[in-house]
Predict the 3D structure of the following.
Amino acid sequence: MQTPKEKAAELIDKFTYWNTSEAEREGIKSALNVVDEMINEFDSLEHYRIDYWYEVKNEINKINNL
């Protein structure tokens, strides 16, 4: 399993289509939306995995603040 930091970077890369700061901001927004959806799903299904997705979200927010 990937670390939360690795997963955050992977998700941002998947949603960043061009090498511009605007595209990266949109990629970050999209990655955060996906993580929020995962958190909502796991919140009702599997509580033990939700901490991982909160950590991924935290890592994405760290990248967003650079």
